C-alpha cells in the first residue's frame, strides 16, 4: 500500500505489552498465531526471537491436539515488536489517547484524541487489549486502570457505547 497510516497509542511503552501472561501458543492462541503468520503477521516471529522456554501441550493425547506454547521475555518481546513497527514503511506512530470514534449518519468520519486532534478517516481499526473500561481489583479495593498502571480508556469506552457497541468484561485472576 502506498498510503501513510497513523498508528496511535496511549504509550509507546505499551506496544506489545504482555502484562500478566507472557505466553504465546497453546491450543486456541496457537491456531490464531499460525493464521496471523500465514497473512504475514509478526507475532510468531517475535515469539521465536524472544522465547525463554517452550512446551508441547497435550502430549498424553493424540497428535491432533498437540500444541506448542512458548513463554517469552516480556521486555524483549516489547522491544522486538516496537522495532518492527518503527521500521514499517508508511506507518506513522504517535503517542496519543483516542477518546472518541466520530461518526455521521452511521458512517465513521475519524477519531479525536484527548488533546483535541482530529484524524479524518473512513475506516478505523481499534485494538484496545484490556484498556476499555479497565478496572483493577486488589482484595476489597478496586479502581479504574489498565494493565501496568497505564490509564484505562474510559472516554473511548463511552464513545463506543454511544455508537451502539456493547461492552463485556472478562475477569482474570492474576
UniProtKB/TrEMBL annotation:
Cofactor: FAD
GO cellular component terms, semicolon-separated: cytosol
Keywords: FAD, Flavoprotein
Gene Ontology molecular function: flavin adenine dinucleotide binding
Domain MnmG N-terminal: 10-174
Annotated GO biological process: tRNA methylation; tRNA wobble uridine modification
Pfam assignment, any one: GIDA
Protein known as: Glucose-inhibited division protein A-related protein
Organism of this sequence: human gut metagenome
